[in-house]
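Ticket #4471: complex job returned nothing on first submit. Input attached below:
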Amino acid sequence: MDVQNRVSVNADDLCAWSRAKAEPQWLLEQRLQALKQVEDLELPEVEKIKLERWDIHEHGDYKAEKLWPGLQEAHEAVHSLVNFPVEGGLIVQHNSDVVYTELSADLAAQGVILTDLHTAAKEHGELVQRYLGQAVKPEEHRLSAVHSAVWSGGVFLYIPDGVEVDVPLQAIFYSSMSGARFAPHILIVAGNNSKISYVDNCISGREDIKVLHNGVLEVFAGAGSKVQVASVHQLAAATTDFTQRRAVVLADGAVEWIIGEMNNGYTATDTKTLLQGNGSNSDAKVIAVGSGCQKLSYTTQVQHFGRSSVSQMITRAVMREEATAIINGITKIEKGATNCDGQQTERILMLSPKARGDANPILLIDEDDVTAGHAASVGQVNAEQIYYLMSRGISRNEAEYLVIFGFLAPVISEIPLEGVRSRLQDLVERKLGRSQEFKS
Amino acid sequence: MTTLKIKDLRSRIEGKEILKGLSLEIHGGEIHAIMGPNGTGKSTLASALMGHPKYEVTDGRVTLDDEDLLEMEVDERARAGLFLAMQYPSEIAGVTNSDFLRSAVNARRGEGNEVSLIRFIRQMESKMKGLEMNPEFSHRYLNEGFSGGEKKRNEILQMMLLEPKFVILDEVDSGLDIDALRIVANGVNELRSPDRGFLIITHYQRLLNYITPDFVHVMMQGRIVKSGGPELAHRLEAEGYDWVKEELGITDETAGQDA
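Support reply: We reran it on our side without changes. The output follows.
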């Protein structure tokens, strides 16, 4: 298989496209450099997953979209996700392009930047160049290199030092055309002592939309900053999702991940925090529901470099029908990162005999003066619990639902953003086949 | 009038027969107590009547007001009016006590007849007060981290809110101190009515000091071997079970043995 087949773009096309987008030279060079590496790099190794058999070879063609003059143009699927009136900011990507951007005058006046990444590279070149591709590097593996070469649309969110944003800023990534490139890159740079909450949804127009989502989300959390990232993916059964999320946290900074993995198709995601600074903090909460014949791999990772850094990772996944999930948690504590604490839990509840789950907690510790712990479980719905609930007149269906929700509740109820929490709850219900409209 | 009729009931668990042809008839307004040493099949009777999946009924008939109980799923039995206060209630994380109770009350009332939230909360709070339960228990996850006594009170709370036609109390007195015992007994007495039947399964006479039964039965080897009035319970308390065994020529009273 040659490069063209994998990337469906060659260097000449890439140059022409980048120029048409009026991208700065350094960005074009970065893209070309990444493209050159594609051929020499292997696919990422994903524990117990044969990624080469997935639909991850075709990245689709760039599909230009017209800007939306307003949200009344928005498709229903997008419209329903927006909290009206938009208080802080909203950015919408449709297939390959960002089509709508809105940021409150108040935030803009404070120096907050919310724009698509092409525009950011033009208007805030120095800032973008300093961070783009520094957390998730192009040379890590083939999919990372392809992403770096061909990403389009995307988000640049910048919060200056000391600015605290109290309303969540929202992004929506909407895929509605099979074969259209869908590779957004999200870059969040939070200045020292800043505070920001970013919420995104990744959605498909229909269940038969066949694309590869090769997405990267990079967070740079400055010293003393507080960054909250909530991301809910609900992509189509025919769509393959490969997503890398990574945060670099400086001293006394904190990153909180709230991840809802609600896709209907094959999915491999990796959410990682690098705790660089002393006293830095990472908290990851992942809720996942698998159904149909989905193959799923969810990895959460933390790497401790800073002293007295603290991490917590929790994944709770429900697998129904013939879904298979491999759930990895990796806590790595580097030599010198004294007085750290790293805790992780992965739990999988299986609802059918054909569902499969595998939880792999891994602690890699090169420093003595630390505390770390892990817990993992894979199990089925407890028959005694169902009997108990039914003995009070609750139907089997309802009883199972209560137990499943009870399983997810300790994580869902901890989600600090009310909107994300209730939407995730609705999505879980749909994925569990509890809503008529989604029973197809 | 409510009637529970058990006829020649046989049941086994993991292939081992525990109930060996048990018959009993209980009418509304009556309280029956089943006593007996450990391992004689008392709790199996409760579980088999409720429909626990591990207990296989191999023979016999059970009707509640002429409805065939054994043909029903567990939830249908409950909605038909049967209630079992369990010896070891399950703990269910993530489901709050009050959400669970409301689901149960609404399931019993049926679709279109659901209780309003305000009314439900008022009822729940008043019953909890009567049972001297801390109001915070309604927000806690169902039975999770409850002490033995708290779990039993929670069982009685469910009984009071569901207002069943027929109540089985399976060793509800075990693990209760004397104050909790009195509170639980008050709850039961409050629900006593001419159209509600009770079957109380217990090791000890002490619960029967607070709830006076109309009939007392002794269970051995998976059936009822002796019946009488409240005075039978007093004699068992004073003299133990040996005299019953002697009278009936039983050497091993457990259900694993044949007479």
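Chain A touches chain B through 24 residues (CB under 8 Å). Closing as resolved unless it happens again.
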